Amino acid sequence: MGQGHPAADDGGFVAWATVRRRALRHTAYLLCGDWHRADDLVQEALVRVYQRWRRIAAGKADAYARRVLVTAAVDESRRPWRREWASEVLPESAHLDSPSMTGAAVLAALRQVPARQRAVLVLRYWEDLSIEQTAAALNCSTGNVKSQSARGLARLRDLLPGDELTYHEEGVR
């Protein structure tokens, strides 16, 4: 087999992808705000992980897949000619896995946060990564993660009415 085709370990990849696909899809949705685009991002991540399966260190596939998701979502947000624009009125309702109204408000506000800040917020507070893990996933400094997190949370507070945004990071509410 040629390089990039890990046929000898397809079973390991399939098992990993089967377990992680749903979580990757939710992360992708939080990054881009659209289930169809999230599916595209997950597919891109799974293809890249598959191509590099034998070269990815044991236990690092999740981190690599998250990095692909974030990079693809941020890249997409920078290319306005490739974006699809959402409509206020949709022909059918979106499936959101039954989030509460508060969850829907947070998701709507999250879509309005700049892509890089949104990526930090998703990795820190949805994926529950540490500052260091988030910095590694985004290939940036821990200081950048802290500042992007603070700016992103401030933007969410501006966008959300009342006490919609509650989190328990470092005792801040």
Chain-wise SSE layout:
Elements: H1 10-32, H2 35-51, H3 61-77, H4 101-110, H5 115-126, H6 131-138, H7 142-159
Helix pairs in contact: 1-2, 1-3, 1-5, 2-3, 3-5, 5-7, 6-7
Features:
single chain, 173 residues, mainly alpha, Arc Repressor Mutant, subunit A, 2 domains, 7 helices, disordered N terminus, disordered C terminus
Q: Segments where pLDDT lies below 50 for 5+ residues?
A: 1-8, 91-101, 167-173
Distance between the termini: 54 Å
- Give the proportion of residues in helices: 55-70%
Give the total of beta strands. Answer: 0
Envelope shape: globular
The secondary structure category is: mainly alpha
Q: Tell me the Rg in angstroms.
A: 17 Å
Give the integer mean of the pLDDT values.
79
Order of helices and strands: HHHHHHH
Number of domains: 2
Beta fraction? under 5%
Write a structural description.
The protein has 173 residues and is mainly α. It folds into two domains: 75 residues, no CATH class; 75 residues, Winged helix-like DNA-binding domain superfamily/Winged helix DNA-binding domain (Arc Repressor Mutant, subunit A). Helices cover 61% and strands 0% of the residues. It has seven helices and no strands. The chain is globular and about 50 Å long. The N and C termini lie far apart (54 Å). The relative contact order is 0.11.
